[in-house]
Design goal:
The complex is a heterodimer.
Chain A: H1 11-39, E1 41-43, E2 50-52, H2 56-62, H3 65-99, H4 105-111, H5 118-128, H6 138-142, H7 153-182, H8 185-193, H9 198-209, H10 211-227, H11 229-236, H12 248-258, H13 262-289
Antiparallel strand pairs in A: 1-2
Chain B: E1 2-13, E2 16-27, E3 31-35, H1 42-50, E4 57-62, E5 65-66, E6 77-80, H2 92-102, H3 107-120, H4 136-148, E7 154-158, H5 166-183, E8 186-191, H6 194-200, E9 203-208, E10 211-216, H7 218-223, H8 228-233, E11 240-246, E12 251-254, E13 258-261, E14 275-279, E15 284-287, E16 294-304, E17 309-315, E18 318-324, E19 335-340, E20 346-349
Helix pairs in contact in B: 2-3, 2-4, 3-4
The complex binds adenosine-5'-diphosphate and magnesium ion.
Magnesium ion is lined by residues 42-43, 159 of chain B.
């Protein structure tokens, strides 16, 4: 039997999907096409519109040592933030799974940070890490000058990374906990009967069985560190001191809207977009095939 | 010396008691089946023996050792779980050999033992597969091989065949019996399936609501049920249970004025005491003529079983089922007379359900 609704009015279906279409167009296709346009053109110095320059903008970006510094920093940022966030989330999830089976409150408490907007968390962490007044600043009371993210680049980067990791813990925790709770209890008991203690069971049974989730989170965290880091950095350090917290996404903003080098920024954003797309692709292709036990 | 001894073992979940003091002695090499309806505490009891569940009160001894505080791995028990609980990310060989690996048995020796055990349950061609690539019966065998490879002192089975189809279940039953005969390892097997229990057990432990109702050989349990519960639970079709009491003339009075001449009385079967008379449908005979000792009844319907048929009849308001081996056609509503074998009558107290013997 044909199960389809027909509209008499040809216009109505289009009107119904229009809001969604407009949103996608205005916030994705239009900016993406603008980025493509700018990435392959250059504004002439004395007016007269843009000229086609092929891959010149990309060549310039890749030829810039400062850009590669930013790429390396982004890599470090991604690894550190992802590593810290996932490790802490996993430890918390393991504890909660072990001792608080069925308790809902704790699960909720851990997800809250995820609901906080990055810039808001950035402001909070600026207070926490403030060398004069913050919690960490009390260290300066004991050893003057030991902590100063305003002047020390390494401190600044560490501060942003820790904040980013903290924001992601809730999200990672929920996924890890859900994955752990999916493991049937009898499998642990079988492990216990087979002579494996808790640590051994964790390594031999729990970790392999949550591998698909771990992989999923790894990709999601890396993508997030490439894109969501913007809000944090803008609020906490604005890329400073002297560019020491400038990651790829921040450099795009800085070059484009501060340096007014639209073409260079557009080329960089195309690179970042391809990177994120590649990661997403890996996610989809790999996760189903490799790390799946039937 | 007993292989496993339970002394007044109790278990509470929070404040809720689920095992109310169980005393059992299991002999070395025995095949014990714990039988009872779902939720009566069979798994809980088994898991306490395994060490997966704490004992609230009482003592569990394995061999001559008190094991209440001993870790599962140090108790020398191996367990086969209801849902198999195989490790899905390991191959069959790795599943079977995991306990040896944990125990630090060298690789070559491990492989050899895994192969030998796999062969004994017919899995030698599947060693490289993952559990997900096996049928239900094969997974079941992996679970058994995994238990066997450790050469345990005690096998524990928790409803291991409940996920298999009927045919496979019968085959696995035979296999478990064969393994037990070959290895002679003390085994405790939990099930709610009475056929499985009767065919496997050296001795049965029949449980109800956290208490042991009866311990005995399958034939003892069938022929001399210790309680009304056991009488009702064991045997298919279920035993007829007729509530009533004896009168001064030695008749058993039941239902709406039904009367039945029965055995000599003893003190406990005194007139006026409420009793339950039990008789298996196999021990009920249909006769056509009125006889002393036969009771009148009206046929309600006939249940055809193929080899035999069950007559469901109403005798003065009490339902009585009789096995009829003759191929007869009796219409509903037809009057019949039912006669009981005297030596097949069981008498239970109506208050506590315990058995009352004629010559006690
Ligand atoms: N972890 C638990 N927490 C609370 N009650 C439980 C738990 N496990 C079992 N029970 C209860 O204990 C009783 C016996 O359970 P169980 O031993 O699994 O029964 P069986 O195996 O005979 O079906 C049941 O009423 C069940 O609800
Ligand atoms: Mg059970």
């Amino acid at each position: 039997m044909e199960r389809r609704a027909y509209y008499r009015n040809r216009l109505l279906p289009w009107l119904l999907i229009a809001p969604q279409l407009i949103l996608i167009f205005v916030f994705f296709y239009w900016p993406a096409s603008q980025a493509l346009y700018w990435a392959f053109t250059l504004e002439q110095a004395w007016g007269g519109g843009n000229v086609w320059v092929g891959f010149d903008n990309f060549r310039q970006v890749f030829g810039d040592a400062r850009y590669w510094n930013t790429v390396m920093r982004s890599g470090l940022y991604a690894l550190a933030a992802t590593g810290i966030s996932m490790t802490l989330a996993l430890v918390l999830a393991l504890f909660v799974d072990r001792s608080l089976r069925g308790t809902k409150i704790f699960q909720d408490v851990y997800i809250w940070p995820y609901a906080i907007a990055a810039p808001a968390a950035g402001v909070a962490f600026r207070f926490i890490f403030s060398p004069e007044a913050g919690l960490v600043g009390t260290l300066n009371g004991m050893w003057p000058g030991i902590w100063n993210p305003a002047t020390n680049g390494a401190h600044a980067l560490l501060m942003v990374i820790v904040c980013h990791a903290w924001l992601g813990i809730g999200y990672n925790f929920i996924f890890f906990l859900a994955a752990l709770q999916m493991i049937p209890r009898s499998m642990f008991e079988a492990g216990a009967m087979d002579g494996a203690g808790p640590a051994r069971r964790m390594i031999d049974l729990q970790l392999p069985l949550i591998a698909p989730t771990t992989f999923f989170l790894l990709i999601m965290n890396i993508i997030s560190s490439f894109t969501d880091s913007f809000g944090l950095i803008d609020v906490m350090t604005e890329g400073g001191p002297v560019g020491s917290t400038e990651v790829m996404v921040y450099k795009i903003y800085f070059d484009g809207f501060r340096g007014l080098d639209y073409s260079g920024a557009a080329a960089q954003s195309i690179v970042l977009m391809l990177l994120v797309m590649a990661l997403t692709f890996v996610q989809f292709k790999w996760i189903e095939r490799r790390i799946h036990y039937a | 010396m007993a292989a496993i001894t339970l002394k007044s073992v109790k278990k509470n979940y929070g404040k809720t008691p689920v095992i109310h003091g169980v005393n059992v002695e299991i002999e070395a090499g025995e095949f014990i089946v714990i039988l009872g309806p779902s939720g009566c505490g069979k798994s809980t009891l088994l898991r306490m023996i395994a060490g997966l569940e704490e004992v609230t009160a009482g003592e569990i001894h394995i061999g001559d050792r008190l094991v209440n505080q001993v870790e599962p791995r140090d108790r020398g028990c191996a367990m086969v779980f209801q849902n198999y609980a195989l490790y899905p990310h390991m191959t069959v060989a790795q599943n079977i050999g995991y306990s040896l690996k944990v125990a630090g048995v060298p690789r070559a020796q491990r492989d050899e033992r895994v192969r030998a055990v796999a062969k004994s349950v017919g899995l030698e061609d599947y060693l490289d597969r993952r559990p997900g690539q096996l049928s239900g019966g094969q997974r079941q065998r992996v679970a058994m091989a995994r238990a066997m490879v450790r050469e345990p002192k005690v096998f524990l089975f928790d409803e291991p065949f409940s996920n298999l189809d009927a045919k496979l279940r019968v085959a696995m039953r035979a296999e478990v019996r064969r393994l037990h005969r070959d290895l002679g390892v003390t085994s405790v097997f939990v099930t709610h399936d009475q056929t499985e229990a009767m065919t496997l057990a050296d001795r049965l432990i029949i449980m109800n609501a956290g208490r042991v109702e009866q311990i005995g050989k399958p034939s003892e349990v069938y022929n001399r049920p210790a309680s009304r519960f056991v009488a009702d639970f064991i045997g298919s079709p279920a035993m007829n249970l007729i509530e009533g009491m004896f009168d001064e003339q030695g008749h058993f009075v039941y239902g709406r004025g039904g009367r039945l001449a029965a055995e000599p009385l003893n003190g406990q079967r005194r007139p006026g005491r409420k009793l339950v008379l039990g008789v298996r449908p196999e021990a009920v005979r249909r006769t056509n003529e009125q006889k002393p000792g036969a009771i009148p009844a009206l046929v309600e319907y006939i249940e055809e079983l193929g080899a035999a048929r069950l007559i469901h009849a109403d005798a003065s308001g009490t339902r009585i089922v009789a096995v009829e081996t003759e191929n007869v056609d009796i219409p509903s509503g037809a009057p019949v007379h039912l006669e009981f074998n005297d030596d097949a009558l069981h008498v239970f107290s109506a208050e506590d359900g315990r058995r009352i013997d004629a010559h006690a």
